[in-house]
Specification:
about 20% helix, alpha+beta, globular, 5 strands
Length: about 210
């Protein structure tokens, strides 16, 4: 018979290693107390933030004063898009690691991002919004799908991103520690990776005994 063909090892990608770690906080997150306006001009957005959050002559409200915020600056390495009046923001005092990562250029914030197709108000949101804004179960699913027009049924934003990266020749893997997730489901036939489901305790040690 013929000699078995020697498999050619895949070449290493020239792309540096990067990972997206997705935490879904099922109990909810008061994001306006995680990241708040700090120094802003000509509009004092922090003062407006405090007032919107209940500060008055007789109440302190739930907004965070600057004394409880870790200031981080908007710099050339962290440009704001689109431009806005704040030169710095404040991260909650209990999250110094986030401030450290931001300052080192390893973390960024996506703000004012959501699941509305266009601006709405209390009078028209029901008919003008394709998702159920106030249904916790519906928003949980929609946050993972990010597909307002239902163009990619059954898929999630992470899976579709992996499809595109794979098509561009960038080795990509998907891992979940909470069962199969629609977030990581790509489009059939697009060549993307299949998600691996791992224990929440991580990968078992190989041949531990």
């Amino acid at each position: 018979g013929k000699d078995r063909a020697t498999a050619t090892a895949p070449s290493d990608s020239e792309e540096p290693y990067k990972a997206i770690v997705y935490f879904y906080l099922g109990g909810g997150l008061d994001s306006y107390n995680m990241l708040a306006p700090y120094n802003c001009a000509p509009i004092d957005v922090h003062q407006r933030y405090m007032e919107v959050r209940g500060e008055s002559a007789i109440a302190t409200g739930v907004g965070l004063p600057k004394s409880r915020l870790i200031e981080v600056n908007i710099t050339e390495s962290h440009p704001a898009q689109p431009p806005q009046p704040c030169s710095s923001f404040g991260i909650h005092e209990s999250l110094p690691k986030l401030a450290e990562l931001y300052k080192s250029g390893q973390l960024n914030f996506f703000v004012n991002a959501g699941l509305m197709a266009k601006p709405v108000d209390t009078a028209n949101y029901s008919g003008e919004t394709p998702v159920q804004l106030f249904a916790h179960n519906a928003m949980t699913l929609e946050a993972k799908r990010e597909d307002l027009a239902d163009e990619f049924s059954g898929t999630g934003v992470g899976g579709r991103m992996a499809d595109i990266l794979t098509q561009k020749g960038i080795p990509t893997n998907l891992f979940s520690i909470d069962g199969q997730q629609v977030l990581l489901s790509g489009q059939p036939g697009q060549g993307g990776p299949t998600q691996f489901t791992l224990s929440s305790q991580g990968v078992s040690s190989f041949n531990a005994n």
